[in-house]
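Exam revision sheet. Question 4 asks you to relate a sequence to its structure. Input first:
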Amino acid sequence: MFFAKQHGLGLLAALTLAGAAIADETGKEEYMSSCASCHGEAADGTGPLADLMTVTVPPLTNLSAQNDGEFPMLTVIQTIDGRQGIKGHGYPMPVWGKRFQADMSDAGPYGREVLVRGRILSLALYLESIQQ
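Answer key, structure tokens:
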């Protein structure tokens, strides 16, 4: 609060917006490296591997429209981390929480959890930003 009084709320708002922009860019990078091969670069369900799936790969740009205009953040996060059990290509969708953890063996158990949650949140925020 002292910072806001001394430097004005405008700077605080600018810092918050900058953080959101960074999260969107981080989420976009995460999406392109982890999701686009199936869901497509435009998140329209037409990735290069979509034709090889035994189930239809859904578009991800209409999640809000399917949920009465509200982005289903918790459901999206739980789907990405594996708690929703969405099936894809004959098996459960890749459980990104576990795959992300495997990438961070040197962060320690608590550090890995924090970093994985951050990656998943960035990805979910990106998906929220591309809703039509």
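Marking note for examiners. The longest strand covers residues 87-88.
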